[in-house]
Amino acid sequence: MTTSEKNYSAEIMEQRWLSKKTFEIKLRRPEAFNFKPGQRISLKYKNLERDYSLASSPDEAHLTLCIRYVAGGLLSQALGDAEIGTGMSFYGPHGYFTIKPSQRPTVLVASGTGIAPFRSMVRSGAAPEFILHGVETSADLYYAEELAPASGKYIPCLSQSGDSQTYFEGRVTDYLRRHLPSQNYDFYLCGRREMIRDVTLLVDELFEGSFIYTEAFY
Amino acid sequence: MKIYTATGDRGKTSLFSGERVSKASDRIEAYGDLDELNSTIGALIAHLPSDRSDLSDELQRIQADIFMISAWLATTANSPAVDSLEPIEERQIVFLENAIDRLEDLLPDLKNFILPGGHISAAWAHAARSVCRRAERHTVLVLESSGDDEPAEQLKRALIYLNRLSDYLFVLARECNRLHGLSDILWKKS
């Protein structure tokens, strides 16, 4: 947040495409850097800066970022084109989007790369009752194999599935409205602000008394 | 991160501790007052003489304290979100007391009530003082419906802080007039 924060140097160790529009980079983790699952860093590269949630657990030797490739998005394009060994800097960690102990069941709701902090939480031992991941197609369910066994129920919500036998077709709000049993929950919402708005208003309507924690990406 | 998510379009907002509450609740009133207080202090800083960075630094430190108090007001009892917050410390109150003493030493004794006003910086300091008093009153309301928990303990300390801050803003208003060669405007029966 402030320019007086410590800057860390990091270089790209790995890069892989998770889907057509999403890629993952792994940065070498500076020894002195620590964070809590769900927190983000401010990444600086080529005079550009943006916040990214970490998708790895604090126990891992690298920092994983899950990035949506945005046509015309200067930093995401530069990172998508960067080669292994490319150096950059970051500062942080920032944010309070961390799992709070609770008696209520936990419901994690992500759209797109908003799944990143949830992956960090799950890799750190969190066992949420529900994980909803709103994406366009099944090709975008990049962390499904990891997330499905870790939660009571992992629910991909696909806007263009073409396979309603296997997947829930519709928005995350459609699933919550139709299928989530009526009671109080702790909702964690991460991703597009329209999703955050729609789920929050739905919670006000159908799950009053629940708690909501949010992180808006774009 | 985006500034707006429009989750408050229907009159509710989320507390730092996760609950959805009415925007007309005591807590929201209280930290809304603190937000207004911080904005008012910002206006005051903008009107300070350019060679008094010591005063603007002091006020910015106070703005940061007010932010922290706001976070406590946005956190309910027994919330694990408490772990993310920094406690309000005695030294922050002592900081204000020392600043009050320092300013009072520069000022003539006051034997009458004074009318808010004078230089624009003094007028803003008085405006800030009265917003601070309102924040204090709303914080009392929040405390009166709180239990004996960690946020309540912090709010009790916040009350001391706000009470002291009002006094600080009062003497600072007088100092702002003195810096500009203006006398206090004494109250006279009309």
Radius of gyration of chain B: 18 Å
| CATH uppermost class of chain B | Mainly Alpha
CATH class type of the largest domain in chain A: Alpha Beta
Number of domains of chain A: 2
Q: Count of DSSP helices of chain B? A: 5
The CATH superfamily of chain B appears as Cobalamin adenosyltransferase-like
Record field, number of beta strands of chain A:
12
Overall 3D geometry of chain B? elongated
CATH topology of chain B: Hypothetical Protein Ta1238, Chain: A
For the record, the CATH architecture of chain B stands as Up-down Bundle
Spatial strand sequence of the major β-sheet of chain B: 1-2
Helix content of chain B: 55-70%
Short description:
The complex is a heterodimer of chains A (218) and B (190). By secondary structure, chain A is an alpha/beta fold. Helix content of chain A is 21%, strand content 35%.
Top keywords for this entry?
heterodimer; A: 218 residues; alpha/beta; Elongation Factor Tu (Ef-tu), domain 3; Rossmann fold; 6-stranded antiparallel beta sheet; 6-stranded parallel beta sheet; 21% helix; 35% strand; globular; B: 190 residues; mainly alpha; Hypothetical Protein Ta1238, Chain: A; two-stranded antiparallel sheet; 5 helices; 4 strands; elongated
Helices, strands, pairings?
The complex is a heterodimer of chains A (218) and B (190).
Chain A: E1 7-17, E2 22-28, E3 40-45, E4 48-53, E5 62-68, H1 74-81, E6 87-94, E7 106-111, H2 116-123, E8 130-135, H3 144-150, E9 153-158, E10 168-169, H4 172-179, E11 186-191, H5 193-206, E12 211-216
Chain B: E1 12-14, E2 20-22, H1 26-46, H2 53-73, H3 90-106, E3 114-115, H4 120-144, H5 150-179, E4 185-186
Antiparallel strand pairs in B: 1-2, 3-4
Helix pairs in contact in B: 1-2, 1-4, 3-5, 4-5
